[in-house]
Write a structure and sequence with these properties.
Layout: H1 19-25, H2 31-44, H3 53-60, H4 64-76, E1 80-83, E2 93-96, H5 150-156, H6 160-173, H7 179-190, H8 196-208, H9 214-227, H10 232-252, H11 262-274, H12 279-293, H13 298-310, H14 316-329, H15 356-365
Antiparallel strand pairs: 1-2
Length: 366
């Protein structure tokens, strides 16, 4: 196959984009937010540039609020620091921050500092969703997802905050929301009293985990409601704890420098929330998996942990006890096979009886 030869005369003016941004930040970000960040990189190198929110909004054919949302997103990711003049609601200064040496889409503490989570802290939830964000301390049942009526949605859309929220949700999810999907999201706002900011963070968080499914967003949101989460700060505290556990599990498998894929997240959600296992037990299952198979296998680890769940294993002492019982059972003496006439071909030979004293006397007399 012939190779491609590339020629370019358009590199006189170049904007450098760090690889860490392309590898770790861009994939989880909304495309419009990425455009704003790249544009900021460009004009930050231009001494003649005189940017403002209005000029950036004109450049992208959007509103100033859209630009501000993008700036706040990158501020949450730790890439920008916004400053404000006294009495001003909109940012008046932007400072680029250095990139961390290693990072995941949601800023997390070091996984090595992850505290073990007691098994009883996690409540039984549907296996496909991590109570993410919720290990309820109460036994309040999780409400079922509900979609608002079309007439109620129409009334809510008269609110500018709701229109902006729906627009943002469509940008995050990459599609136009149907009336049903909009009703399912606005249920959290209208019935469960999520603030627009909390609902925005809910959508942003789920997308950062690689899922744009309304069903997934509902499950996470309902779990937050069950936990009593009412602010973005509370949600961030819970998601940080659970995410630390995710990356600690990946590390136990020997997986580093990447995020879990959705299927892996499903397994970990089940182990943490439905099974309610501590991190010690999950790490042990991961280590046994690698020792047995020579590679990380979430399916194999699921087999180990599901069996422990059936056996009511709750601590490492329970595991050691069952190991000892298994080892003791494997040492029972094996029954020796009986030899029959069919298995010993010499049994058919007629055995002669000799008088060795007479034989010796005959030999001496010869």
């Amino acid at each position: 196959m012939s190779k491609l030869t590339l020629q370019s005369d358009c590199l006189q003016s170049v904007t450098a984009v760090p690889d860490v941004f392309l590898d770790q930040y861009m994939p989880a970000a909304n495309g419009e937010f990425v455009k704003v960040y790249l544009y900021l990189l460009k004009i930050s190198r231009d001494p003649t540039a005189n940017p403002s929110l209005s000029s950036m909004a004109d450049f992208f054919s959007c509103t100033e609020n859209d630009i501000v949302r993008a700036l706040k997103y990158w501020e949450k990711q730790g890439l920008l620091a916004l400053s404000y003049q006294s009495g001003e609601a909109l940012p008046t200064g932007i400072c680029f921050l250095p990139y961390p040496s290693s990072r995941n889409p949601v800023i997390l503490p070091d996984a090595d500092q992850t505290p073990a989570r007691a098994p009883k802290e996690a409540a039984q939830m549907e296996a496909s969703v991590r109570t993410e964000d919720a290990s309820p301390a109460t036994e309040k049942s999780t409400p079922k997802p509900v979609s608002l009526s079309g007439s109620r949605i129409a009334v809510l859309k008269e609110n500018e905050e709701i229109r902006q929220l729906i627009f943002l949700a469509e940008q995050y999810l990459g599609r136009t929301l149907s009336s049903t999907d909009a009703g399912r999201l606005l249920y959290f706002y209208d019935e469960l009293h999520f603030s627009a900011e909390l609902l925005e963070y809910l959508i942003e968080y789920c997308v950062s985990k690689g899922s744009t499914s309304i069903h997934y967003i509902e499950k996470v949101g309902l779990a937050w409601h069950q936990k009593g989460i009412t602010t973005v700060a509370m949600a961030k505290q819970e998601t940080t704890t659970w995410n630390k556990n995710y990356f600690a599990i990946l590390k136990a498998f020997g997986i580093r420098n990447r995020n879990p894929i959705p299927k892996e997240a499903e397994y970990m959600e089940r182990w943490l929330s439905e099974y309610g296992f501590s991190m010690d037990l999950i790490r042990e299952a991961c280590q046994r998996t690698v020792a047995q198979t020579g590679q990380p296998s979430f399916k194999y680890a699921e087999g180990i942990l599901s069996k422990w769940k059936e056996q009511n294993v709750q601590t490492m002492e329970d595991v050691k006890l069952r190991d000892a019982e298994h080892k003791k059972g494997s040492k029972t003496p094996k029954e020796q096979p009986r030899q029959t006439s069919e298995t010993n071909r010499f049994n058919n030979f007629h055995q002669r009886a000799y008088d060795y004293s007479k034989l010796e006397e005959q030999l001496l007399n010869q």
